[in-house]
Write the structure tokens for this entry.
Amino acid sequence: MNYKKFFFIIPCLLIGIHLSAQNGGIDEQTLSAMRASYDNSPATKALQTAISGNDINKLAANHNNPNTHDVYFSNRVNSKGITDQKSSGRCWLFTGLNVLRSKVIAKYNLSEFTFSQNYCFFYDQLEKSNLFLQAIIDTKDKDMTDKIVEWLFKNPLSDGGQFTGVVNIITKYGVVPSEAMPETNSSNNTSRMSNLISLKLREYGLQLRDMAAQGAKNKELTDKKKEMLNTIYRMLALNLGTPPSSFTYTLKDATGKPVKTQTYTPLSFYQEFVGVDMSNYVMIMNDPTRPYYKVYEIEYDRHMYDGENWKYLNVPMDQIKQIAIASIKDSTMMYFSCDVGKFLNSSTGLLDINNYDYASLMGTTFNMDKKQRIATFASGSSHAMTLCAVDLDENGNSKKWMVENSWGSASGYKGHLIMTDEWFDEYMFRLVADKKYIPKDIQALLTQKPVILPPWDPMFAMEE
């Protein structure tokens, strides 16, 4: 043995442990204390075996929860047919179109009807691609390490979105029934296509910045961008199909009997069958980390360059509930988004904070409130659905809510999710309602100058 080397190593190890403790690391003494604190009793060993070998939710399930099978609702908007976004992040689009679909079904007394999500998605992806490329041109003089440039290259394209995008897309491009542009494998499974187009967009972004660095003028950059978009259009058409410029549609009544057959453009179909002034819709939000009764706007968070940024009014939860109740009582569905993964029993479709007792299982507590969870990135809006029902007590207070989901009819409770009022308070974030259900004093707040927020704010990720 090389004793000189041995006696050199020992002091180094001791120094390493000492420095670890000094620098905030875990030293041997601290680790020993952790080991000693762990109760290695037979009961703990049994619990360890159970948890390490099973789904935590199965072990934490609260079988005494009385809300599990209560599916009665005092007020409900009628709907027909459940949609399925499959393996895509298009919940925002399905939800927005389902809000309008319910109006079409009621207006024409249809047995069932769906818009083509694929048609709108095609133009959403094309517009987002243009938004990225034009933003690259706009920021050409900024360094690659600039925060906004970095954010653009990190997020060139997304299949997620929010309600403002629904409004901008359908008012510009119209809508078509599902049979006019059916779903494809790529629309149902978007990741591969999105990854390839994102890769191409990043390449194009670098080319545009390189052209600008070599002195190219804005017109030259814009012409190059249009040439690049031809390739993006081709990639989209190969994956999603070619959007129709006109189509023939036969309207049938609730019994399936043909009423009329006519040729439409997507915009004329929108004007006749939907006929809704989308400017009447207002997004309200419950974000306790920011002051209430303020309007907020998220920079670059839009679906098209010539569209509108995402804008909303922050309102306390009790007022959001009153707006939602008024809308449902008037048979009008709403765009709704929440943190859907929290306390979801996927087999029953129940969202209830009492579904699972994680504290007892883990032997600790989880005490953060909504404000603290948002501030620490533990919670945020992740999924959009269509709010369609509320159950009220004798005093008109909400007891539970129901949404029409877009995960297929076999998911949850017949394609729906039911949430307790307490869960609604904790994990509901956004609601889009017609102005007529919003009190005049709250509407008046919409005229104030918005507070601009950065697009990388975690509270405003695109919903999937």
